[in-house]
Specification:
The chain is an all-alpha fold. The protein is about 75% helix and about 0% strand. The chain has one domain.
């Protein structure tokens, strides 16, 4: 999960692992959203797989943000328009960017060069981007307000 897990107390490790499991549960739902949107845009609307991938990833990013705010990091944040709007912007600029850029680069590599099925390639791209997105979400997007902009305890450990 992260290099900081080793120096954590047992209780902190347990919270971190539980959050990682929640993150993956939300991510699994987000994968279903992403693949369904990708399939619909590619097969139903006959969009090229690259713009279809970007739109599908953004649909999953919005879905995941809502669930992460209310479930994965519910102990850290209080959803409200005033607080959630800047957090959604941070989420989109960080994990959204990692997801969209990572997915597009890997899709082009795997589909164009590797001749892999677009849905299988998308699944592989999702897995690769997942770990980085957890770390970014935990340390930048859903961090405690007093720790935003500075190194948090888990970063220094």
């Amino acid at each position: 999960m992260s290099g900081g897990v080793i120096g954590m107390s047992r209780r902190a490790r347990h919270r971190h692992v539980l959050r990682w499991l929640k993150f993956n549960a939300v991510g699994a739902l987000g994968i279903a959203v992403q693949l369904a949107v990708l399939f619909g845009l590619k097969s139903g609307f006959h969009l090229n797989y690259l713009p279809a991938t970007a739109l599908a990833v953004e649909a999953a990013v919005l879905h995941n943000f809502l669930w992460h705010e209310r479930y994965t990091w519910a102990d850290r944040v209080q959803p409200s328009w005033r607080e959630s709007s800047p957090r959604l912007l941070r989420f989109n600029l960080t994990t959204g960017a990692v997801s969209i850029l990572g997915n597009l680069a890997l899709m082009e590599l795997l589909v164009d060069l590797g001749h892999m099925n677009f849905l299988l390639a998308n699944g592989a791209a999702i897995v690769v981007c997942s770990l980085l997105n957890f770390v970014v979400s935990d340390r930048i997007v859903f961090c405690l307000p007093s720790k935003r902009g500075s190194q948090s305890e888990s970063v220094t450990q």
